[in-house]
Amino acid sequence: MFHIQRGVAPRADLAIDLGTANTLVVGRGAGIIFNEPTLCCFRAGGQAPELVAAGRQAQDLSGRVAKPLRIVRPLKNGVLSDMTAASALIRYAVRRHRSGWRLGRPRALIGVPADATQAERSALEAAARDAGLAEPRLVAEPFVSAVGAGLPVDAPRGTMIVDCGAGTTEVAVISLGGICVSRSVRGGSDGLDQAIVDHLHLKHRFDIGPATAERLKRELSSLLETGEADRMVPVCGLDMAEGLPSTISVPAAELMRIWNRYIESIVSAVRDALSRTPPGLAEDIHEDGITLTGGAAMTGLLARRIAEETGLPTHVAETPLDSVAAGLARMIDG
Ligand SMILES: Nc1ncnc2c1ncn2[C@@H]1O[C@H](COP(=O)(O)OP(=O)(O)OP(=O)(O)O)[C@@H](O)[C@H]1O
Predict the structure, then answer these.
(1) Does 274 carry a binding-site annotation?
(2) Which of 48, 79, 210, 294 could form a disulfide with 120 if both were Cys (CB 3.0 to 4.6 A apart)?
(3) Where are the domains of the chain?
(4) Residue 212 pLDDT exceeds 70
(5) CA of 214 to the centre of ligand 1 (A)
């Protein structure tokens, strides 16, 4: 069982939800003080790469830079893939609010996937220290998002949370302040973007950029949710045969297969977690249902399909994108 370390949280000055797609920083007593994409833009050359932009400014440059500039995603599948970029982003995210803390390095609470390996945890702690934070403490993200969603995590009652992020989907059964069962699917909603890019490239010989893939994914998710799969979706990009910018129309139904694969992997993780849940806690989940958090839960499609496949009531948290940050805020505010 993953138990939260009591007494650690109230001592933190700030808390960080370093997500694959979005990074949020919460200040003690100040709420969310930073909420921007997890992206950096570096200029190569010299001894070390120079940070040119981070967060929203880096996103504005994404898909539009050429050498010596390079867009870097510090995380992949929920865990650090580039220490230098992660540490630069953390430093950037907390810099404006440094004056709010008393002298010294701020102490931080940081969310981490429940199944992160020791090496992945150590890398995150090292990046945080390198960014000027003291005593970084890690907490399991599904637990924190359950706190943020207002679930009764301390009660002697089984609660199931599915945190649907960009890089990882985490399923957890929580009771008495700890995680009893957890399952992870490495590869979250961002995998859909890449699958859409690959599909258009292979089937239509048509290339699109990351911003178009993200927009297309959201548009498709709402069409599929409202049962409008027969609609044609205009896609703007580069026609590879002609070598010219162009617009094509693709039936939403054609991309349904991509969604199905993603949803099936989540449903199978939920089923697996349920099958390993002690019967008493499973009965509680049968009564209370499943709660979804994370940005990918924004589409009702996911909740509907999980409810259909498990027969359990499935709810989306009130502000799914901010659940981890809301949980971190509650923990550091004591
Ligand atoms: N309306 C929507 N429909 C579908 N997907 C959405 C919608 N809104 C946001 N998303 C997706 O949610 C993801 C971002 O969610 P979130 O911020 O919870 O992830 P993260 O915390 O950065 O990732 P992780 O926890 O996996 O490291 C992105 O992949 C984004 O495309």
Answers:
(1) no
(2) 79
(3) 2-144+324-332, 151-316
(4) yes
(5) 10
